[in-house]
Structures are given as structure tokens and as C-alpha cells.
Amino acid sequence: MKGSRIALLASAAVFALASVTTPASASQADAWQSVCSGGDIASGTYQNLKVTGDCTVPSGAVVTVVHNLKVVRGASFAADSAPSTVHIGGNVVAGPGSFFGLGCTAAHGCETGTTFSDASVGGNITLNYVYDAAINGVEVGGNVVSQGGGGGFVFDQGGFVPFSVKDDIIHGNLVVRGLKTTWFGVIRSQIDGNVILKYIKNDDPDGNEIVHDAIGGNLVCRGLSPQPQFGDAVEDPSLPADYRYSTVGGRVVGQCGFVLNPSSSGS
After folding, report:
1. How many domains does the chain have?
2. Is residue 266 part of a domain?
3. Digit-coded pLDDT (tens) for 27-52
4. Which domain holds residue 224?
5. Global pTM value
6. Does the residue 265 lie in any domain?
7. Residue 70 phi/psi, 5° resolution?
């Protein structure tokens, strides 16, 4: 279990410099907001960060956004393919056709490495018709909400666009609605509130994996295609037999009744 990084961000905001550290690839519009129009985002403390192009957090970078991160329509914030430290004190908002990736873990982006990301968001993550998102190994103080979007059906053309929520701690709710993409999964994550998954369409037959999660509230699954499933967790002989199951503190509604261990009392 990760230690709490949300509280550390609150104290960091008090000591943040009035003028942010600005990399060559990010122009400082004013003391309150920096803009990355493309390239690497250098280590530093930013009051607010607006991403308008294809921007990457490189390996080993330490980036603190004291307040909010905004990824505009068609832009990309990629902090999921190399280990880095990224802490965002406020909210994340990503617009239509954009990409938001945060967290490089043994299960995503850093599969062959031994060093992984340290990442957190103090507020909410709101994804509005994004092209794709990868949220892996991240502590989120509020909700994660995704409406619409996705990379479309490209699996039969050799494409693979995975929308992943893996190894996260989400202190609020997780809500994903109307996503159409190759693959979607919620795996090994702690969600303290409700999980609501509706009308998520994948063209990978192994899509819509719900595996080994700890959900404090209700789990609602409706209109998912293919049917939600364990996927690879069933096939891996190195994992214990009950690894695939999740715990749900509230009710399970719709297609996801299979996630509960039938041998557990009260399930």
C-alpha cells in the first residue's frame, strides 16, 4: 500500500514558488500558468499546467503541479512509459481526442524495469471524450470520471488501444460511460466509493477485465461488450485460485456478479 501522497501535496502548495520553473518546451504564459506545446516537460514546480501539444514526462523527472492540469482537445500528456515522479495537487481535465497517461508500473509501461513511477492527483480526474487514458499506480484523492470517447474498433486491423485503470488507489468513485475502444480493464485497484461501468464496447475479445479489486461502495455494470470477465487472471497458473475475485462493500448490479468469490461468506 502506498503511503499518502495527497497530504504532502497540500503542504507543498504553501511553499511553492510564485514563479514556476519553466522548461524549454513549456512557455510560461504568466506566473500562474505554464503551457507545454510539445516535447519533454522538465522537472520543476508548476502552479498550473496546460498541455496543448504532445508532451512527455521523461524518465527520472520530478514534476509537481500545485493546482490543476489541463490537456486540451487533441493534445497528449504522457507520463506512463518511463518511471518518474508526478504529483498534481488539484484536478486533471482532459478534452476530446486527447491522451492522458499517468503512472509507469510493472503492469504498464515499465514491464521490464525495476524502477516505477510515484504518481498522485489530489482532486478529480475528468476525461471528456478522450482518445485514450492510462491511469496506473496512481493515488487519486477524488473521483475518476470518463465520458464517451475511445480509440474505436481497430483490433482487427492490428491496432491496440488499451484504456487501463490498474494498481490505483481512488478515494472517490470510478465512473466510465460510453467508451468505445480496443480494451478496457479495472485491475488490482482500490476504489473507496462506487464503480459505475456503462456501455463500454471493446473489440478485443479479452476486453472489459474486472480483476482483483477492492471496492468500498457499489459495483454497477451495464451494457458492457464483451461481457465483463477475468481474462488472463484465469489462465495464469502462477496466481492463487482466488486472486481473480474482488471485494465489494455495497451491492453488485448488472453484469459483474461474477467478481465475488462464491466461497466467501455473505457473497
Report:
1. 1
2. no
3. 444 568 999 999 999 999 999 999 99
4. 6-259
5. 0.89
6. no
7. -125, 130
